[in-house]
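WARN retry 2 of 3 for item q-0093 after timeout on previous attempt; input resubmitted unchanged.
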Amino acid sequence: MRILNLALLLLAVAASASNVAITTQTLPNGTVGIPYSATILTSGGCTPMTWKISAGVLPPGIQLTPTNNTRSLLLSGMPTMAGTYPFTVTVMGCGKKVANRSYSVTIQSASVHTVDLTWSDSGTSIVGYNVSRSTVSGGPYAKINLGGLVAAMLYTDATVANATTYHYVTTAVASSGAESGYSNEATAVVP
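OK item q-0093 returned
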């Protein structure tokens, strides 16, 4: 019986020290003076995890904050300088397993124009929204909130070009992960 308990304990220790992986492939770009937020997620490994920038630098004005369970890393703040910022994120799980991923974030100069979008609440089980746009009415649409779900019922598109008409739709994402169909289309004309 003692050998069986020891074997189970060793299996539990081996499982907790599994490899950790950074699953977020890319991060969204940002704009000077526009709040920035992106989340880097992991899989595998065990907590607590420690995070660091192991090469390069974050865009000025952006800070990193591990989440409460340390399984993800929040990049947030107000970008203060335009430029392209390559950097590598390293995470280490409790079993000393390490994962690295390189990213590049471009911070653009403040745009002269933005499009502010708002919509109605879709229900209590909704955890966030995706915002998509097209330059053609009826799509095809491309998702523009690349840093994760939009938690509020508002979104500012600061990546618009002058003399362009945009068509926007949203989808609601439930706590189960199910995503709704597109909302009614809203149109914005940028002078």
